[in-house]
Write a structure and sequence with these properties.
Shape: elongated
Radius of gyration: 24 Å
CATH class of the largest domain: Mainly Beta
Order of helices and strands: EHEEEEEEEEEEEEEH
CATH topology of the largest domain: OB fold (Dihydrolipoamide Acetyltransferase, E2P)
Structural class: mainly beta
Distance between the termini: 57 Å
CATH architecture of the largest domain: Beta Barrel
Length: 194
């Protein structure tokens, strides 16, 4: 889920930024310190905006940088369990598909792609359904539900588990049209088999 949060913090402005206006210096220092970082409570900080209430600077002996208290807004992304997200397949492997949504990737395990048995086709680099013949390849746009979130110290260490097995999830082409019945294989009775 995307959120805009307001943060108040003391920011370090190095001497190399002293030649610019205080507003520009604060923006650059905030972007360098916050953008792309992961906070366990807020999620991934995508960008910082609207720096305001910039306090007077303090210089600590031996440092040379100025420290200013500042209030600013941050656009964050933190996936929540049961949230439905739309994303693009960034990688297909024999154990599942990685989906990029926002600034982070999530994994749909091969058992969570569809109700059908999916196998990895190394030649075409895609997952193929045994009975349904549904395919999933890199760059496909899909809808998935978050089933587990483990936010660690960095974005690359974090794990997002997804599913596409429920109705309404997966590729758009997989969606049944309203009123369309699912075709089930007709089982032969014992008498017909003989």
């Amino acid at each position: 889920m995307y959120n805009v949060v307001t943060i108040r913090d003391t920011i370090r402005i190095p001497p190399k930024l002293f030649t610019e206006s205080i507003e520009e210096s604060v923006k650059k220092a905030l972007r360098e310190q916050y953008e792309g970082r992961l906070d366990k409570d807020m999620g991934v900080i995508i960008t910082v905006t609207n720096p305001r209430e910039i306090g007077d600077g303090k210089i600590i002996p031996g440092d040379g940088a100025a420290y200013h208290t500042v209030m600013f807004d941050a656009l964050t992304f933190k996936p929540e369990v049961h949230e439905v997200l739309k994303g693009k397949i960034s990688e297909i492997t024999d154990f599942g598909a990685f989906i990029r949504f926002g600034p982070i990737d999530g994994l749909v395990h091969v058992s969570q792609v569809t109700d059908d048995f999916m196998s990895y086709n190394e030649k075409t680099q895609c997952l193929v359904g045994k009975d349904s013949k549904k395919t999933l390849k890199k760059e496909d746009v899909v809808t998935a539900r978050v089933i587990a979130v483990s936010m660690k110290g960095t974005v690359s260490e974090s794990k997002i588990n997804l599913t596409m097995r429920q109705e309404g999830l997966g590729k758009k082409e997989w969606m049944k049209k309203k009123g369309e019945k699912t075709e089930k294989p007709v089982k032969k009775s014992k008498k017909e088999k003989k």
